[in-house]
Design goal:
- It is globular, with a radius of gyration of 19 Å.
- Helix content is 25%, strand content 24%.
- About 4% of the residues have low confidence.
- The protein folds into two domains: 119 residues, Molybdenum Cofactor Biosythetic Enzyme, Chain A; 83 residues, Beta-clip (Beta Barrel).
- It has five helices and twelve strands.
Length: 232
Amino acid sequence: LVAIEDTPGPAAIRDCNGPAILAMASAHPWIHALGSYRAPDDKDELRERIAHALEDADVLVLSGGVSMGTKDFVPGVLADLGVEQIFHKTAIRPGKPLWLGAAPNGAHVFGLPGNPVAVQVTFREIVMPALRKLAGFARTSGLEYVLPLAVPVSKSIPFRQFVPARIVPGNPSGEPHQSPLCSTSHALPLDHRGSGDFVSAARAEGVIVLPEGPQELAAGDAVAFHPWGASC
């Protein structure tokens, strides 16, 4: 994992999740983001980095290392540091490996998956409502609009699914509309290739939320649309 401005060599990738999380948090003036740091897949160094971060932070957001791979050390390292697991894995996609725990000093620890779209979804849908609650906001959820679908959508998985989408006028081939409140606006799900497809996330204006269970939705059926933005 190399800095986003560096050129990755063989078997290396750019760190896009750290800057993304920092940008999403810093968009809210009431959040004081302390920084973004990378750690290798080494238990001892990971333990040292996390222990140091917990000394200063009220909330620690990690990305990667929480799934089932041989190098996914985060849950074990957090347990070594006395962080109590509240839950691990959720019935959502993307974002199933999500981890949440509480440190001995009262800090809250979120372990997000490593795939870029999963990071976007879990931070906006799970972490941000939790941060609003911790900050004492009366409204903890983000904005939600109920919009008709521009095209049919089929869903076979049992989990709740968040699909990157854009707002378009009544004609799905038109340009993205600037106001979700326009009476002719529709939600257009974007073609995407899973939770690693950060290009679709970059093109998205938000996500449509498909409830648990198989779904066969026709064009014009109403869906929940969660916009992405600093005020959301």
